[in-house]
Amino acid sequence: MTYKAIVIDKNPDYIATLTDLNEDQLPEGDVKIDVIASTMNYKDALAITNKNPVVRTFPLTPGIDLVGKVTESQSNRFKIGDTVILNGFGVGEVHSGGLAEKASLKSEWLIHLPKAISPIDAMTIGTAGYTAMLSIIALEKHGLTPESGKILVTGATGGVGSFAVSLLTKLGYDVIAATGKASEHEYLYQLGAKEIIDRHELSDKGKPLQKMRWAGAIDSVGSNTLVNVLAATEYGGCVAACGLAQGFDLNGTVMPFILRNVTLRGVDSVMRPLPDRIEAWSRLAELIDPATLANIRTEITLDEVIENADKIINGEIKGRLVVKI
Ligand code: NDP
Questions:
Q1: Mutate which of 219, 221, 229 to test ligand 1's pocket (most atoms within 8 Å of Cβ)?
Q2: Gap from CA of 246 to ligand 1 centroid (Å)
Q3: Which atom number of ligand 1 is nearest to the Cα of residue 225?
Q4: 199 C-alpha to center of ligand 1: Å?
Q5: For a pocket test of ligand 1, which of 42, 123, 205 has the largest count of ligand atoms closer than 8 A to its C-beta?
Q6: What is the pLDDT of residues 273-292, one digit of tens each?
Q7: Looking at the chain, which terminus has fewer C-beta neighbours within 10 angstroms, N or C?
Q8: Average pLDDT rounded to a whole number, residues 4-31
Q9: Full-model pTM
């Protein structure tokens, strides 16, 4: 039996193609899955375009997120017919992932999809929404509440940003959205943003301490932006840093930490232990509004994946690209 998959190979040049594979080419795993849907994250775009060395074994199917039905299981946590979700754990980097009709995965990477979330909605959320939720949980664990003050979201029209704006709003926070897309202000207001600022206000090197503007922030941009975000965070505030869309450098000062008691919390979604994943997905099941998801998503098919990778890298995509398998 064959199945369709995006395959990245080096032969000798780096190339991504849509290919027919035999089922015996599936990698090792104690759970076999018919993929229902996947999604295209920034990291998948980096993998497909080879802009960053995301893929570390060849040939490999990218796709760090998937939802599918179990077709074979040697694990007592899962039975045939279960709907499962996978985010990260090196899948799509060192183990073949979701941009294919079939997958073979380790059961310890999987959780059951909460019943309240449909597979397409789950992939609209994907690692982006799950990371936004983890970032919000990080701010909550710091003690921030809607009464603490405004929360800034950078990269606001991106996948993580869109979810952060929408989920924070649902939780009652006043959200300031930082974006470079003047044409998308209406979209951000629809998601719930109360204020919008131009991301260029934050993208150049700034003063070590700036006028205090927000109690907390979710930053998917890094670099100068994150330094400026920290410099303008209110006394005792918290910034959850989860991304590097501007860059992975962090050339700042310790002033916000030592003079304003600001906390910088790192947020990783990839190697997150199962209890954190289950907490994040059950919070998402409570908070997510299917109508908002429909507004955030664009559906594509496997044969449109490769052409969309450059658009993601160039920051031309708004919201989420869901791949219906
Ligand atoms: P997207 O490409 O969907 O969004 C990124 C957004 O960042 C863009 O839409 C744009 O928003 C903004 N942006 C792009 N380039 C720049 C720039 N040069 N300077 C400032 N802002 C810029 O990506 P995702 O939302 O999926 O991911 C965002 C980041 O988070 C990525 O770096 C990704 O690798 C990381 N990530 C990390 C995870 C983790 O586990 N820690 C998990 C998931 C993602 P706008 O036009 O509105 O300004």
A1: 221
A2: 8
A3: 20
A4: 12
A5: 42
A6: 999 999 999 999 999 989 88
A7: N
A8: 95
A9: 0.93
Domains of the chain: 2-117+294-324 (3.90.180.10), 127-266 (3.40.50.720)
Residue 278: helix, strand or coil by DSSP?
Answer: helix
Condensed to tens digits (0 to 9), the pLDDT of residues 216-264 reads 999 999 999 999 999 999 999 999 999 999 999 999 999 999 999 999 9
What is the per-residue pLDDT for 42? 87
**Rounded to the nearest whole angstrom, what is the distance from the C-alpha of residue 222 to the centroid of ligand 1?**
9
Rounded to an integer, what distance in angstroms lies between the CA atom of residue 311 and that of residue 313?
Answer: 5
Report the alpha-carbon distance of residue 295 to residue 158 in Å, rounded.
13
Mean confidence (pLDDT) of the chain: 96
- Ligand 1 pocket residues where CB is under 6 Å: 41-43, 127-128, 131, 155-161, 179-181, 199, 203, 220-221, 225, 242-246, 267-270, 312, 315
What pLDDT, in 10s, does the model give residues 80-111?
999 999 999 999 999 999 999 999 999 999 99
For residue 47, how far is its CA from the centre of ligand 1 (angstroms)?
A: 15
Q: Are 164 and 153 in contact (CB under 8 A)?
A: yes
* Closest approach atom of ligand 1 to CA 199: 48
Tokens standing for 7?
């395959």
DSSP symbols for 84-151? EEEE-TTBTTTB--SSBSEEEE-GGG-EEPPTTS-HHHHHHHHHHHHHHHHHHHHHHHHT--GGG--E
